[in-house]
Amino acid sequence: MSEPGALETLISQQIVTAMKAHDADRTGALRLIKNALKNKSIEKRAPLTQAEGEQTLASMIKQRRDSIEQFSKGNRPDLVAKEQAEIVIIEEFLPKALDEAGLAALVSEALAELEGSLGHKPTQKEIGPAMKAVQGKLQAASLRADGRAVSELVKKALAG
């Protein structure tokens, strides 16, 4: 599924399936995804690549997580549940997310490689290159992880 626009085609097929199953919540979430991808490709004036599509979906998940935080503060469990259900549907179209243990192993591996190239143990001042190394490893392995979690693990590893 690496040709441009393949993700949009897959989403369209899923919408039809959800509509036939009379699953209104799934249909609505899929339409949101399709619209976000469509808007991004219009903005780009070309079909989205796989990476661009995944980036768009990842930002949608980030928006949902921010909304969940706000709705939790506002004591709106109904809206929290709706946003969480949308996240589950969006995540179906992304590569598997790395769990915390796997992410910690990947971070230490990336920092060890960075230490080898720098010639010394990376410090807090070198968080930028450290983050780039970790993100590069994630992309090379076709994995994804929450940016906030990556940042926290990198900071903790550099501090320790």
Q: Could you please describe the fold and organization of this structure?
A:
α1 packs antiparallel against α2, α2 (24-44) crosses α3 and α5 (100-118) crosses α7. It is built from 7 helices and no strands. The mean pLDDT is 86. The protein has 160 residues and is mostly helical. The termini are far apart. Helix content is 76%, strand content 0%. The chain is globular and about 60 Å long. It folds into 2 domains: 6-93, Orthogonal Bundle (Hypothetical Protein Yqey, Chain: A, domain1); 100-158, Arc Repressor Mutant, subunit A, CATH 1.10.10. It comes from Candidatus Sulfuritelmatomonas gaucii. GO terms for molecular function: carbon-nitrogen ligase activity, with glutamine as amido-N-donor. Pfam families: YqeY. This is GatB/Yqey domain protein. InterPro entries: Asn/Gln_tRNA_amidoTrase-B-like, GatB_Yqey_C_2, YqeY/Aim41, YqeY/Aim41_N.
End-to-end Cα distance: 41 Å
Radius of gyration: 18 Å
Averaged pLDDT, please?
86
| Principal-axis shape | globular
Number of domains: 2
**Remind me, CATH topology of the largest domain?**
Hypothetical Protein Yqey, Chain: A, domain1
Q: Could you give me the name of the CATH homologous superfamily of the largest domain? A: Uncharacterised protein YqeY/AIM41, N-terminal domain
Helix content: over 70%
Number of helices: 7
Sequence of secondary-structure elements: HHHHHHH
Largest sheet: none
CATH secondary-structure class of the largest domain: Mainly Alpha
Overall strand count: 0
Q: Enumerate the spans where pLDDT stays under 50 for 5 or more consecutive residues.
A: none
Structural class: mainly alpha
